[in-house]
Design a protein that fits this description.
single chain, alpha/beta, TIM Barrel, 8-stranded parallel beta barrel, two-stranded antiparallel sheet, 18 strands, 33% helix
């Protein structure tokens, strides 16, 4: 696609968000019961491709067990309240009542407590005891410091998640960079890394040996990254670009398939279908699950970015609740706004377009809608 002239010295590429596109049914329809939502990463299989994002408002050891029991995967934030406090429930209850205008200051205070290495092991053990696949997330900045505690605790899937993750992250001590290729090679567990938003960035991450790549930076309802840093990921274009990198890396590597996981900007069930239509294998979501009555935030939502000690890039958002985690995931729904029965909606979108599994559904025709199509 040709660049658009912004001014005499700058050109920019026209890109699209999920709001800018729509699916086009263009072949036979299919019964819902004949559609498979199954998804697999490395040796781990799941009934569906919805992953709970590593946010304290969404994932606790208890909610991770509930999501796992529903056939999905939940990722615990290993830099969150659950690894800083032996019992953070009272703090989470307090966050639900905070004035949104002053909430960041209180969050900074709560998250200033040091991470307890012993609690990392305890939280992973809690999830393992529930009999579900365990996944935990660290930022690139913290990975060098805590990775061994995570792996020793028996985590099944290791997630390295940040606003932008590169193949080599240079920390405050520039003599000890996080070399992802060497790091991943030496681990015995599959690693999912991200975010990234470009073809080249994704290709670099795939070459590290990652089992999956996160597209985006988790930017959604609780993030203010665009306002604070000027960074914004138009997710439809980003997912399609990274899917192209996956295709080319498949040829380059002689058949190694890397999972593409859309991360952020998916607040409604229709967004999940669009993400997969653009090439995602799975989706990582926060705000849809934060609306569950039995999610830790119980309708209140925030991310780790809101807690940064000097430059918060997120805020506390109050959605209210719509139903339990089970109802949000698999219904039944009593609402027509895309906030409940996420899996039922995805299954219906696939059946309406005539596709039987997620890989087939990536081939569905899409259209650019409204004024977004004009350039």
């Amino acid at each position: 696609m040709a660049d658009i002239e912004i001014g005499g010295a700058k050109r920019g590429r026209l890109t699209y968000s999920f709001d800018d596109i729509a699916l086009v049914p263009s072949r036979r329809t299919r019964d819902d019961g004949s559609v498979s939502l199954s998804w697999r990463v490395d040796a781990y299989s799941f009934d569906h491709p919805v992953i709970a994002a590593p946010m304290d408002s969404v994932v606790s050891p208890t909610s991770a067990a509930a999501i796992g029991a529903l056939g999905g995967l939940a990722v615990l934030n290993l830099e969150g309240l659950w690894t800083r406090y032996a019992d953070p429930t009272s703090l989470i209850e307090e966050i639900r009542t905070l004035d949104t205008q002053t909430a960041n200051r209180r969050l900074q205070e709560m998250y200033a407590a040091p991470i307890d290495v012993d609690l990392i092991g305890e939280r992973i053990a809690q999830m393992r005891a529930a009999g579900v696949t365990t996944a935990g997330a660290l930022s690139p900045q913290r990975t060098q410091q805590y990775w061994k505690a995570v792996v020793d605790a028996g985590v099944d899937i290791f997630v390295i998640r940040g606003t932008t993750v590169s193949a080599e992250h240079v920390g405050a001590d520039e003599h000890e960079p996080l070399d992802l290729k060497r790091f991943i090679y030496e681990l015995d567990v599959p690693v999912i890394v991200g975010g990234c938003a470009t073809y080249q960035g994704a290709l670099h991450l795939m070459r590290t040996g990652a089992a999956g790549v996160l597209v985006g930076f988790g930017g959604g309802a609780s993030h203010t990254t665009s306002a604070v840093l000027g960074l914004q990921v138009p997710m439809a274009s980003a997912v399609a670009d990274v899917a192209a990198a996956r295709r080319d890396y498949l040829d380059e590597s002689g058949g190694r398939y890397v999972q593409v996981i859309a991360d952020g900007a998916m607040g409604r069930s229709g967004d999940l279908a669009k993400a997969i239509a653009c090439g995602a294998d799975a989706v990582m979501v926060g705000s849809p699950l934060a609306r569950a009555t039995d999610a830790p935030g119980a309708g209140t939502h925030w991310g780790l970015e809101a807690t940064h000690p000097s430059l918060p890039r997120g805020e506390v958002v109050r959605f209210g609740t719509v139903g339990t985690i089970a109802e949000v995931m698999q219904g039944p729904s009593e609402r027509a706004d895309g906030t409940m029965n996420l899996l039922g909606a995805l299954r219906r979108a696939m059946s309406t377009c005539g596709y039987r599994d997620l890989k087939e559904f990536q081939r569905v025709e899409v259209t650019v809608v409204g004024t977004s199509a004009q350039s």
